[in-house]
Amino acid sequence: MGFRKDFLWGGAVAANQVEGAWNVDGKGLSVADVARLKTTARNNYRQQVAINSSEISKAIADPTSNNYPKRRGIDMYHHFQEDIKLFAGMGFKVFRFSIAWTRLFPTGEEKTPNAAGLHYYHRFIAELRKYHIEPLITLSHYEMPLSLAVKYNGWANKRVIDDFVRFAQVCFDNFPEVKYWLTFNEIDSVTRHPFTSAGIVPDKSNNLLQDEFQALHNQFVASSMVTKLCHQMIPHSMIGCMLTKLTTYPATAKPIDILAAFNKNTMNYFCSDVQVKGYYPPLIRQYFKHNSIHLDVTKRELALIANNTVDFVSFSYYMSLLTASDKSGLELTSGNTIVGGKNPYLPTTDWGWTIDPVGLRLSLLQLFDRYHKPLFVAENGVGATDQLNSDGSINDEYRINYFRQHFREMKKAVNNGVDLLGYTSWAPIDLVSASTSQMSKRYGFIYVDLDDHGRGTNKRYKKDSYYWYRDVILSNGEKL
Ligand code: BG6
Hints:
The chain is built from 16 helices and 14 strands. It has one domain: Alpha-Beta Barrel (TIM Barrel), CATH 3.20.20. By secondary structure, it is of the alpha/beta class. The structure holds 6-O-phosphono-beta-D-glucopyranose (BG6). 6-O-phosphono-beta-D-glucopyranose binds next to loops.
């Protein structure tokens, strides 16, 4: 009973939230490099992710990182040896990170990769290997080349598929010793934040909903091509999909509310259904009909999707929400790029996200029951305000409690028969928030002394949770 012997404990980050060095060694601009700091939009994710063409032009013309925190990140680009050493100090078995597409292909359209970008990731992976930490690489984590977004409206245009496959091929070719790969981070998020997730500039779309689903289809095709390539080029590898697991409960036991929750959850599963089962589920086809969505889909693409399904299912899990048939009575709260009904039985974080450890167990059971594939918790964690004490300590008991409760439930799911490969916390080190671009929304076991405006020493400090997670890993989840 308990976690498998070779359970992959570790942490996860995305290049655009940590690396900084946005214009160093030939890197091009990505969609993340034009995301502004949104400190006032704590509970409004639509405001957090909103962007338009004129803001993008303004950002392109701005040569600084003053208003664009993801350009500076935590400067992991120049601190990775120190950071990896700290991860090794916690006993990490795995580290999930993304390869920034724009370090290898600055505009996305070059035919050959930027050698300096490749050199960086060779050094990064060698450093992980030094400590026997297995890389888990996300190929696309909210960092599409900006040029592809501006020129072609991102993934809404089929022509970017080949650009992405060329990028993936270069990654497989250069890093054949990497066993675990993911294609698109939280692929389902295209319909919630189309620019960050798929490079779609909303004011460039005549029919945004249609473009979002076309972008998803194009990503499914790219994902299947890349899965095929990965299997051919690295035969011992495993490549997975990645879903935002947005667990939704009915607000009451009224059948009509249960139906509303069923519909929400079914939509949430749609992308992983396609990537795991290899076909569009019938209910989504009805949804397309009802919403007059007409996709450009060929037989060849459907065959690719059918023949190249993923090896495992990874997902992020942070919170759960309520829904109802009549939403007018619901008290709302925010969640991971979503707003929904607040569950009166659950506490919330400083950013309004519910804390629901049992929801993680439920999610694991639901996903395993649905797909019968190995699972991987690729993200889970709590964004909170931390206090750095004058002696350099950070007492983050609330973070320890969050993880402790989630690990207890995760263990129960494993004991119920779920095949769980590993767990990577989001995030092991403080980083720039994806939605708000804040540093003050802190996730790490390691504190980084930077504020929302990039002021501070950028020094790293171990929080109390650092030592606690180290013991969890050392005991393979027994000492919680
Ligand atoms: C996930 C993303 O949605 O949630 C991460 O994959 C993100 O990139 C994480 O950082 C937490 O969200 P946020 O908005 O608090 O950074």
